[in-house]
Amino acid sequence: MLTVSNYARLTLATLAVAGCPLVASAQSVEPPQQIYAQYSGSVLILKVADISLSAAFQDGTYSAAATFESGGLLRWFDDTNIEATTSGYRATDSLRPYRYEHINHASNKGRVVGINFDDGVAMPDVQPPFGSMGEPPANDEDRAGALDPISTLLGLMLSIQSGEDEICQGRLPVFDGKARYDLRFNNAGPDDVRTRGWSGEAIRCQAFIEPISGYDEGDRPDEQETNRPVTIWLAPIESVYVPVRFRAQTRIGSINITATQLYAGDASQ
To answer: Would you list the domain boundaries of the chain?
Structure first.
């Protein structure tokens, strides 16, 4: 049976489900109190997914929630209804997540994939446990300093990837509860983009996955997949850069995810 590749699922879960705004400098820009975005995905003209995101920044803390629900063509191959949340503390040059978890409500396993961050080390808290944590599994050294998928994109928002000051440069370490990988970012320059939620000039950002540990046999992305980026278009809205479009190649074709609603500003509005 034709399926969406594990690489595409992982990358879309990280980038599309957790897609978040980006700012140019952690020192010069204070993020808005609230961000809300809705996205719709398609292969050609066939709808495949609905995505939503809400994030809040207050008093040195942050929290966010995201959903990813497959539909149309994608539902024929992969029944997905993921709900994810994260929360933590924010410094001028780093994020310190406290708790992350997600659940696929469409799965009959009822598994909650949680991550606690004790002393800066991402510790999996998966109930019921996975049958395998990969070969080799991610060890404490691998998980030290890693962020959950949603905090990874919030880290981009604060431009903390490898201490870079520019949008979409450097890399961030990610742990999703099982797999440990790096996301490496490349700024491909300005580009015009049009979506239902926003139109104008955006920054074309390429994200490459670099697997580290925690993969079962057959799940680890091969060289062809790691050389094929997910492309994200980042648009200036208020004081932040918000993803307005995603594009990724999968086994069922090129998936395009575009913004249908966007808001960044005061939480009281």
So the answer is: 6-265
Task: Give me the pLDDT at residue 2, please.
Answer: 33
Q: What is the pLDDT of residue 154?
A: 72
Q: Tell me which residues of the chain have a pLDDT lower than 70.
A: 1-29, 71-79, 156-165, 251-252, 268-269
Quick check: 230 and 197 in contact, CB under 8 A?
A: no
Kindly tell me the sign of the dihedral angle through the C-alpha atoms of 157, 53, 56, 244: positive
Contact 12, 248 (CB under 8 A): yes
Report helix, strand or coil for 151.
Answer: helix
Which tokens is 89 given?
A: 């503390």
Please report the pLDDT score of residue 32 as a whole number: 82
The residue to which tokens 């539909």 are assigned: 71
What's CA 86's distance to the chain center, in Å?
Answer: 12
Strand partners of residue 254: 249
Q: What is the pTM of this model?
A: 0.85
pLDDT at position 12: 54
**In this predicted structure, what is the pLDDT of residue 158?**
59
Alpha-carbon span 124 to 135, nearest angstrom = 16
Number of residues written out for the chain: 269
Is 32:20 a contact under the CB 8 Å cutoff?
Answer: no
Rounded Cα–Cα distance for residues 158 and 153 (Å): 9
d(CA 105, CA 112): 10
Distance CA 218, CA 238 (A): 43
